[in-house]
Amino acid sequence: MKIQFAPTDLPLTRRLQMASVLQWVFSFLGLAPCCIMMFFVLMFTRFWLISVLYAIWFFLDWETPSKGGRRFHFLCHLRVWDYMRDYFPVKLVKTADLDPGKNYILGFHPHGVLVAGAFINFCTYATGFRKLFPGLDSFLLMLPLWFRAPFFRDYIMMAGLIPSDKESASYLLRRQGGGNAVVIAVGGAPEALDARPGAFTILLANKKGFVKLAMEHGAHLVPVFSFGENELFDQVENPRGTWLRWIQDKLQSIMGISLPLFHARGVFQYSFGIMPYRKPINTVVGQPIRVEKNEKPTVEELDTLHQLYTEELSQLFEEHKGKYGVPEDQHLSFV
């Protein structure tokens, strides 16, 4: 394989963009294990008191993630996120106003490998979510597993991340006065196994929990499609029915996290590595679907709203795909 090296005379701005994405990739893939290791290593050094005090804090602060977390606005405003936005680049597209007096569930599609579009748009202020939708605070749901990692849990809460369980989402959706936008990557970890350039497979056919949650709290549903999300990484071929996919599905069912074998480019060369490609991400926020509060919806009512959501998502894709280089004959595949 011929390696294509990056030029040595890149502008400083490009290097800063690269550094910002590198720290983000490390945060997603390596920071949690490092934090866990540091917690236990400190226990056997003269700094053992740090781990002891943190353990007490961890116990006292146990319920914070499920009660809206602890966002630090200064972190969301850091310049590093502007550089990360410009690396791809990422753009947030508004198609309709969202009443700040209501609560919303934003269904994010597709998951992609590392949900880059969701993180930049809804966990930072780099793409102007708060300006486009004044009065709304966005909260991105993440696997509860990561909120058990010492130190790491505090870092991700500072960016507005909360556990992806019913209790955490319900806490926000119950708030009187509205102003909360709970962002759910509906396809979840399993959908990451289908994330590759040119793929438009959406895991939605049997995903009805978020619809039921919206009905129970009277939260309006908003479909969101992130064009370019699947273009950031290549992935080892793993079609359903192969031994690799069987192993990945099995591990996902046991651990709760998927393990896509992805690759893209490196820091100093363009031929291999785990840095994402510089591909544009255009995240389009669709029209809100009005949902009346119904604490005990019937199966028929749930199916009807789920079908409406699916149709609205499909329509959103069809209306905007031409603007972002998607072929006219390409349609979403719901599984």
Automatic annotation (TrEMBL):
Enzyme class: transferase
Location of this chain's protein in the cell: Endoplasmic reticulum membrane
Main location: endoplasmic reticulum
Membrane topology: Multi-pass membrane protein
Molecular function, one GO term: 2-acylglycerol O-acyltransferase activity
Keyword Transferase attached: yes
Protein name: Acyltransferase
Listed GO CC annotations: endoplasmic reticulum membrane
Source taxon at top rank: Eukaryota
Residue ranges crossing the lipid bilayer per the database entry: 21-41
GO BP terms in the entry: diacylglycerol biosynthetic process; triglyceride biosynthetic process
Record keywords: Acyltransferase, Endoplasmic reticulum, Lipid biosynthesis, Lipid metabolism, Membrane, Transferase, Transmembrane, Transmembrane helix
EC number(s) stated in the UniProt entry for this protein: 2.3.1.-
Protein family (similarity comment): Belongs to the diacylglycerol acyltransferase family.
Keyword Acyltransferase: yes
Organism of provenance: Coregonus suidteri
